């Protein structure tokens, strides 16, 4: 599990006094973009993902926003990253997923552990740094719906306590209300031969591995579609979406 916090220089909470809106690109050893992180109206960026052993790169850029153009996005910043070997953790799997369902943010999660859950707390953040308790679902619950009060991007994570007094956090996800501007996978982890996607339009897609070998290809339509990933083994793959004017790349992991 790899986590990175990219924070612009500031003089207070919420990046007060900062003139830099950070965008972070995460690339593999062949310089293929695995993900682009620039959470809405926030000036900071957070990466929280699972990766295989290998060489990776970060590309940092100053971007414009609703309050300032890109050429004025300048300043110093700090990066703080960490990597944890997930295979050595007592918790086998703690994965949070989310999607928009009508006006609600629909959150679901998977917990695989030898110990028994004694407490679950869903936490949220609107500034990318400070997480607050949102709800305390029942210990057996794996689904929670929340209707935000505005259209700001919201980040979520799950805080779990087990009967051996150990405490763990899930991955962090970001849900943005409003119109989808690019194809979005409904979850990056798959166990079968397909993955769902929500798209603002019609796109061609290809499923490739890290060497660029194609495993499947096809078309998706506006709305919800299903992508056939083909007969792939466990590991990391990429879904490339293209149309006449755009190209987007998303990562999937086959368990």
Identify the notable features of this structure and list them briefly:
single chain; 255 residues; mainly beta; Immunoglobulin-like; 3 domains; 5-stranded antiparallel β-sheet; 5-stranded mixed β-sheet; 22 strands; 53% strand
CATH homologous superfamily of the largest domain - what is it?
Immunoglobulins
The helicity comes to under 10%
**Average pLDDT metric:** 83
**What CATH architecture of the largest domain would you give?**
Sandwich
Kindly provide the name of the CATH class of the largest domain. Mainly Beta
- The 3D shape can be described as globular
Q: Which regions contain 5 or more consecutive residues with pLDDT less than 50?
A: none
The portion of residues forming beta strands comes to: over 45%
Task: Provide the domain count.
Answer: 3
> Structural class of the helix and strand makeup?
mainly beta
Order of SSEs: EEEEEEEEEEEEEEEEEEEEEE
Question: Helical region count?
Answer: 0
Quaternary structure annotation: single chain
CATH topology of the largest domain: Immunoglobulin-like
Q: Describe the biggest sheet?
A: 5 strands, antiparallel
From the alpha carbons, calculate the radius of gyration and give it in angstroms: 19 Å
Straight-line N-to-C gap: 14 Å
Number of strands: 22
């Amino acid at each position: 599990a790899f986590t990175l916090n990219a924070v612009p220089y500031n003089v207070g909470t919420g990046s007060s006094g900062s003139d830099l809106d950070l965008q972070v690109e995460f690339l593999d050893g062949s310089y293929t973009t695995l993900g682009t992180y620039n959470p809405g109206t926030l000036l900071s960026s957070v990466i929280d993902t699972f990766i295989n052993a290998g060489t990776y790169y970060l590309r940092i850029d100053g971007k414009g926003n609703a309050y300032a153009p890109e050429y004025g996005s300048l300043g110093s910043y700090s990066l703080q990253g960490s990597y944890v070997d997930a295979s050595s953790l007592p918790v086998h799997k703690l994965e949070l997923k989310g999607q928009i369902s009508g006006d609600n943010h629909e959150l679901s999660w998977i917990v695989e552990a030898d110990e028994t859950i004694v407490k679950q707390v869903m936490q949220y953040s609107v500034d990318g740094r400070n997480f607050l308790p949102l709800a305390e679902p029942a210990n057996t619950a794996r689904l929670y719906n929340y209707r935000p009060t505005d259209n700001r991007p919201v980040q979520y994570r799950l805080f779990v306590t087990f009967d051996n007094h150990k405490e763990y956090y899930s991955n962090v996800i970001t849900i943005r209300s409003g119109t989808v501007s690019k194809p979005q996978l409904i979850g990056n982890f798959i166990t079968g031969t397909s993955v769902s996607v929500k798209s603002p339009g019609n796109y061609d897609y290809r499923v490739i591995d890290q060497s660029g070998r194609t495993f499947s290809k096809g078309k998706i339509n506006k709305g919800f579609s299903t992508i056939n990933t083909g007969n792939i083994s466990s590991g990391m793959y990429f879904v490339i979406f293209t149309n006449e004017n755009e190209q987007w790349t998303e990562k999937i992991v086959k368990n």
